[in-house]
Amino acid sequence: MEKILEVEDLHVTFTTYGGTVQAVRGVSFDLHKGETLAIVGESGCGKSVTSNAIMRLIPSPPGKITKGSVKFKGKDLTKVSEKKMRSIRGVDISMVFQDPMTALNPTLTIGTQLTEGIKEHQNLSNSEAEKKALQMLELVGIPNPDERMKQYPHQFSGGMRQRIVIAIALICQPELLIADEPTTALDVTIQAQILELFDEIQQATGVSIILITHDLGVVAKVADRIAVMYAGKIIETGTKRDIFYKTEHPYTKGLLSSVPRLDQRGSELTSIEGTPPDLFAPPEGCPFAARCEFAMVVCNKMYPDETSLSDEHRVHCWLQDERAKKLQAASSK
Amino acid sequence: MKEKILEVKGLKKHFEVGRGQILKAVDDVSFDVYRGETFGLVGESGCGKTTIGRTIMGLYNKTDGNVLYDGEDVHALSKEEEFDFYKKMQMIFQDPYASLNPRSTVREVIGEPMEVHGLYESKKEQLDEIISLLEEVGLDRDHANRYPHEFSGGQRQRIGIARALALQPDFIIADEPISALDVSVQAQVVNLLKRLQTEMGLTFLFIAHDLSMVRQISDRIGVMYLGNLVELTTSDQLYENPLHPYTKALLSAIPIPDPDVEEKRERIILEGELPSPIDPPSGCVFRTRCPAAMDICSEVVPTFKEQEEGHYVACHLY
Questions:
Q1: Interface ipTM above 0.90
Q2: CA–CA–CA angle B258, B261, B266 (5° rounding)
């Protein structure tokens, strides 16, 4: 399948008065055309910073992409000029943010906000732009689009606003849509509607989606592939089935078992003790070692290399090392 | 026979929102909470679950109905009785960032209710108690002199829990205590709450929107929609045999973290959005989104009746 995005060894830091935060520390992944990649992880793991870095939306200073490349259809986005980047944002790559309450300008009508981008980028006349906007509103399921175009954001509910944000993101027919926690601020019944909408849109337009989320239930429903992030690194990546059923990394296992399931009732939830490391001074070895029940001496000293378990399934863990496996085999005898 | 610790009878809480309009945040809700159980109250934003919690606590005055705690009307207490009442009932709040005073040390945060109620004779005794509470909730004695900003979200919530326990209450209202936390930390806090319940015999009113978590922790669950309680039953019954169409839709909307299960699931996608509680639909409030709505639904308000033993539902289908 055609690769639309290749992120390689991306490093992002933020310089603050208290020191330098190494928010993203060597993230690499590919995205194929028409697929949905979910980046999952807990707060502060660097998933939003990664997506903002792809869009070059890291405020600089204090933020900086210190290393690595983001190739969108072969072109390295970390190297293009700001002017060129402006012609890519919203046209080739769009973004949907978490909070539909703040993502829209409260002083402009929905119509203005919808047509703003397309008028800027595609040189359309007002009436053409409006026609396009109406189509988009219909696509995302807003009833009476004609009237709604003239209304302001406060006249819409949260779910409707998120639909509008999605319509704005899709109006220039981007090839890549980055959705950063798009349903986190919504109620579950509305979340179900929006997830359904993403599915319909992907089938209708073939857009590739990067979904940033912490909700493993959402991931199980919509993702094709999953990348699990922890402390600024992708520690395991694979197809949805690899991650859920052939889980290798102890953190991924911990994360999966700490999520309560509606269809099961256990006596006690498994929690991961401790907290993620401080990214001002990230540990030299595996960042999860301090919380990992299988941690060995080596884990605190060196970060493990990538182990490929199959074409798609890759993991960074010392337990994959031949020597560790031998020991496991020996001890299980 | 289980002993009722809290009885909520026909509770209404209306807010005046100007221009003579009235927002019916809670409209005629009745339920009992038994001693030692965890009662989960679930529903989507704006359904009135937080308002119920606050009205039970006496933080809001009721509009109508009764809240009886140990048989006593919470809203008819004298100032003195109210003071004592707060020793029995405490609250844990949702946002661990906003609910702790940034200028107080942990020791002051937990010590304040103890001082107000004059629980301990000496500072030393009080400090010992604060430290033992900190240890109880999984923090340590070194944390006592630190400020809230030095803690992570999960740790702050532990501080909030320690503060709620400071007066050794019997009843705790936990209003979305884990929603602001990461999943792995959520599990830590829920396990802590469960352990405290067993050790101290606490009764919980657990208010949350996350049904998967509520199922893990609750004995019984009440489902709210637009100011009304629509269904109430045991945790297992609710998941295995939901009766109300809203409960069914709500349950089916929650994604399950298991791709195989997700692929096979039939989803009931509710059309539309929550109507305004200022001008709720006539009859059954859910009828505008209900896939099974009938003529009668717009005319008659369904009564909240016991359909099976201990399983209450407000719906014309039954």
A1: no
A2: 130
In the structure, what pLDDT confidence band is assigned to residue B238 with cuts at 50, 70 and 90? very high
CB-based contacts of B23, cutoff 8 Å, min separation 6:
B14, B15, B16, B17, B277, B278
In this prediction, residue A66 has a pLDDT band, given cuts at 50, 70 and 90, of: very high
Euclidean distance between the first and the last CA atom of chain B, given in angstroms as a whole number: 28
Q: What is the pLDDT of residue A333?
A: 60
Helix (H, G, I), strand (E, B) or coil at A293: coil
- Supply B132's token pair: 């033992």
Residue B43 has pLDDT above 60, yes or no: yes
Q: Is A3 exposed, middle or buried (0-12, 13-18, 19+ CB in 10 A)?
A: middle
Instruction: Choose from A183, A215, A259, A262 for mutation: most chain B CBs within 10 A.
Output: A262
For B216, phi and psi rounded to 5 degrees? -65, -35
User: Measured between CB atoms, does A224 come within 8 Å of chain B?
Assistant: no
Mean pLDDT over each residue of chain B, to the nearest integer: 90
| Binary contact (B209, A192; C-beta < 8 A) | no
Tell me how far apart the alpha carbons of residues A133 and A323 are, in angstroms, rounded to a whole number. Answer: 60
pLDDT digits (tens, 9 = 90+) for A140-165: 888 888 889 999 998 888 888 888 99
b/e map A227-248, b = 16+ CB within 10 Å: bbbbbbbbbbbbbbebbbeebb
Q: Say if residue B177 is preceded by a cis peptide, omega within 30 of 0.
A: no
- SS3 at position A274: coil
Q: What is the distance, to the nearest Å, from the Cα of residue B121 to the centroid of all Cα atoms in its chain?
A: 34
Distance from CA of A256 to the nearest CA of B (A): 8
CA of residue B290 relative to chain centroid, distance: 25
| Angle at alpha carbon of residue A178, lines to A173 and A184, rounded to 5° | 125
